[in-house]
Specification:
The complex is a heterodimer. By secondary structure, chain A is mainly alpha-helical. Helix content of chain A is 70%, strand content 0%. Chain A has 12 helices and no strands. The radius of gyration of chain A is 21 Å and the shape is globular. Chain B folds into 2 domains: 220 residues, P-loop containing nucleotide triphosphate hydrolases (Rossmann fold, 3-Layer(aba) Sandwich), CATH 3.40.50; 81 residues, Alpha-Beta Plaits. Chain B contains 14 helices and 14 strands. In chain B, strand 7, helix 8 and strand 8 form a beta-alpha-beta unit. Chain B is elongated. The two termini of chain B are 33 Å apart. The chains are: A mainly alpha, B alpha/beta. At the A-B interface, helix 1, helix 2 and helix 6 of A face helix 4, helix 5 and helix 6 of B. Chain B: It holds the Pfam family ABC_tran. Chain B: Its main location: membrane. Chain B: It is a peripheral membrane protein.
Amino acid sequence: MTTSALKTAGVPDTPGSPDPAAPAPPSRLRRELRAVHALVHRDLLRLSTQRTHTALMLIQPVLYLFILGGGLAALIPNSTLGVGYQTYLFPGVLMMTVQTPAIMVGIRLITDRQSGYLRELLMAPVRRSTLLLGSCAGGTTVAAVQGAVLLALAGAVGLPYDPLLLALLLAGMVLASFTITALSLALAVTLGRPEVFHMLLGLVMMPLLFLSGGFFPLESLPGWARSLAALNPLAYGVDLLRRGITLRVPDQAAVAGLEWFGRQPPLLLEAAALLATGTAALLWAAHRFNRPE
Amino acid sequence: MQPRAGDDAPTQATLPTAARTGPHAAESAPEPAYAISTRGLVKSYPGPDGTTTHAVRGLDLDVGQGETFAFLGPNGAGKSTTIALLCALARPTAGRATVAGADVLGEPDQVRRQVGMLFQHSALDTDLTAEQNLHIHARLYGMSRRDARRRATETLEAVGLTDRRRSPVRTLSGGMRRRLELARGLLHAPRILFLDEPTTGLDPHARAQVWEHLRALRDRQGTTLFVTTHYLEEAENCDRLAIIDGGRLVAQGTPFALKDAIGDDRVVLRTSDDPSAHQVVRRTAPPGTVTALDTEGISLRVPNGSSWIPRLCAALEAHGIPVRSASATPPTLDDVFFHHTGRSIHTARPAPTPTTTQPTATTATTEGGP
């Protein structure tokens, strides 16, 4: 943080004023943006201070990729998937990586409420929806950072370190992280109690992962399961990443994933669906969160 | 407890005249006379089975600029709810409140910018360092990075935590955390600082330290302090205090005025034969005096308690009852609290069960034994 002072040095922002609420306070929008930034900053600080925790969160998907992926690669012939199993698994593993920190945001909102930290946040002279937006931005950023770390393994699964490919994958992860974070927040403000939240997570997490198409092709599933998958945000995330790979490395194109009425939806429409779901969830969460006591 | 003339005098005297009760009187004034002013403030929560819980029932409160104001009451009296209302964290069910010249309902952001808050339960991010906690908070309040860093340094120094600024909060002691929270509450230089039980759970040394910082703050910056507490000695040191019980304000005034309203000193006598002495004391004391007999001895409330001791001793000696000890103590805030609520703040129980007014023969005999 020591270098960041330079960035704002030129901003006319009543420097040296002992009272931030002095006659010319920063504009409303700037204050709200600063609050959002404060929450993102908090999440990034936590990420950097809790190194062990972060490392452990990253180890799990790596284990999946190399142990599960390595073991099954020998059993599954490339012809069924179009690519080697580890390459096939990679988008699913990336989604696993971003999903954990994204979901943590909802859990943290609940623990913050219980610890009293949320009250402290609510004291800030900003809109409540700003605080929620800040939490969402923070969760998305942390998830994307962790996902970006895992992109380093692209070479190990036979993908080239093509900047555009990496950018596409990162963009897909940011979008998916946003939607999962927003859904997690919507759930957190609706449920309120951590036990219920954890129970619900335990109940839906495995089906969501298995219906994401990250571990095996959705087309091998029965029709009803495929319909469920079409409602699964993780499936959209995985599909976006996989199609990103197909776009840049056609020889690593895996079999098709999501289908709407038997046809593969356009890539941008898929992304738009994910974005719309996340936005709707965030709006709903903000609506619930805005209700004062 | 007998009703006395002047009982309510200090309570009434501190209430303002109707001049300021107009709906926009406070907003239009550039420097409002009161830092905090409430009229008929009510907060009710829907309880179980369709019932309604009244946490605060019609509060009329006035806190002057720069005043250190204590809000005294037992647990569950409505102190924290009142603070939440005054900080615009909760919406009042009825009534209105003006804090730092802004209406809590109409301009909650304006209120929050002017007030700082120290919550009853520590609310710090324990994984971050002291400095990081302050920085995040300052940014939440819309400060630039430069201001945030400067204020963090200043406030850390003010609470004497400069050398621990890079320590993760989880490694700080309870007293240090409290001081860090104080620093956080001061970051945006609030005109009013709310402190909800600021010293609960701290050892005497840490408590003294927190108060030292609070006093320095008041003296240097003229910050209005609104402190809830159930420590009488803390309330004693405040400029004014209000006693709240069951969501209602039962008394309001300076510690001196409130104690003075009780007026009478408490005289305690211990003799070799307390029950007999009790009879003598009852005859000697002015008519209408409340006397009580318990394990502590004989106690009574009289004006100018010390001047009564020789007279009571003489009367007892005349009856052949030697006096072992005698003391006269002016009224304490606990007496004030007892006077208004019918119970001691230390033994605050759901049902009023006064102890000193119901002497029992058994305690008297065991005490009066050889």
